[in-house]
Amino acid sequence: MDREPTENSTPFQDLISTQEQLDIFFTYAPDAIFINNLQGTIVEVNDTAQVLFGYSRDELLGKTFGELKFFPRNQIRRMERELAKIAMGESTGPEIFIVNHKNGNKVSIEMMAYPATVKKAALVLYVLRDISKRISEKQERIKLQEQLRQTQKMDAIGRLAGGIAHDFNNMLGTISGYADIILKRFAPDNPKVEKYALGIYEAAKKSADLTAKLLAFAQKGQYETGPIDIHVTVQNVVDVMKHSFDESIAITKDFTASHSVVFGDKSQMQNIILNLVMNAKDAMPKGGTLELVTKNIQLDALDILNRAEEIKPGSYLKLSVSDTGVGMDEEVKFRAFEPFFTTKDLGQATGLGLAGVYGIVKAHGGFIEIKSEIDSGTQFDVYLPLAKEEIDESSEESPKEEQAVGGKILLVDDEELFREMTTEMIEGMGYDIETCSDGDEAIEYFKDHSQEVDLVILDVIMKRVGGYDCFVALQKIDPSVKAIITSGYSSDGEAKKILEKGAIGFLQKPFEMDKLSEVIAKNVGKSSS
Prior knowledge:
By secondary structure, this protein is α/β, with parallel strands linked by helices. 43% of the residues lie in helices and 22% in strands.
């Protein structure tokens, strides 16, 4: 017999009974619902509960949470305390638990429990909400925030490292320069002087290598760029390094990249590969396998969306250097690229190898990632933008020109000791030299003597008027002015800006006397022949 509609009934209520409504809500509720007795035995479940845990209704009924091993052992006591509260008539929750799916996966849930009485039987109503996605999103946000903080920290350290390297290179330029002068002028007839000067020179050179790594990390080095075949570079480094490897380490290569040419500085690319190969070697003291793999990767906007670093979409060469060594924990992975951070014993490493790799890769428009677990090895993935240019195999280095003597040099540098040392060098080569301590002084001098000056040697970073502004002013006086720029480092592309403006070359401090002589001879005295 059909039900008569009541005054306050709805069309839905007219179709089905209250009990049927409750059955629908229970069965299809978005949250998992368990009804247990006070002994913990499951007496009823809804469909969502079966999906959440992967068990059928028949597998769940008559079992306890403990028998089904829903909750890890360390959470069983919490469950027992919750059940005791419910037996006293208290509701509990919401509380977060990590539970076990039938297939072994972990599921994050938020659980609430309520006491209930049905036909005088005391029962417990458990409502479990799957919050795995929410937890995962939160963890991803935390991870990205940490990555962003790490990137900001690395940038700050980079600026500090660049500033230190700049000042240090100025001092090293003076030390190594005077040692070079002593070696060439006074040492040949005096073995002791030669020994002492050589010691000073070698110490300065090693110090310069350290600052070069700092500059690489700070992305402030000045590079000679061109197309480079990474396959050839990797092979050359491996050929040189394999003789220093123990026989217990096997080296394998898998060059699957069809396009392996990138645009960059050849020596810096070698530096990347050398440091990663040496790092892999040191991670396998008991032997293992070192593998070098290349692939071509296309990154689109979606691929770079969840990365903290600024990465441009495009075509990349991916170079993977992996080992089967000791691996890294999370803290070591997080700090691996920091300058002076090392897991090796004191004196065995400077902690600048991977820092330099990081800086070089970034300076070349790429990025680097680490995959590693303790006792499961490490893989460094280096991504470098692919070059559009092909390598011209026929191009050869032009022969060096004969060194010409005669001409006037204008040296502009705000470091007095460096000016004095460089003056000694240049005068010893047979050139006239005039020095200025800043850009203003150089501009004033050049106004009256531009016709006498054959070459300007100009420091990039100076107090008051810097190298760029000074060079622009000199060009206004004489558009044909020839200038070589020098610096302890290239600050924020200042050296590049001056080169693009028309400077004819760059000398990284500290430089050797022979290199300075070669550069000057190439650009001075030609008109006198």
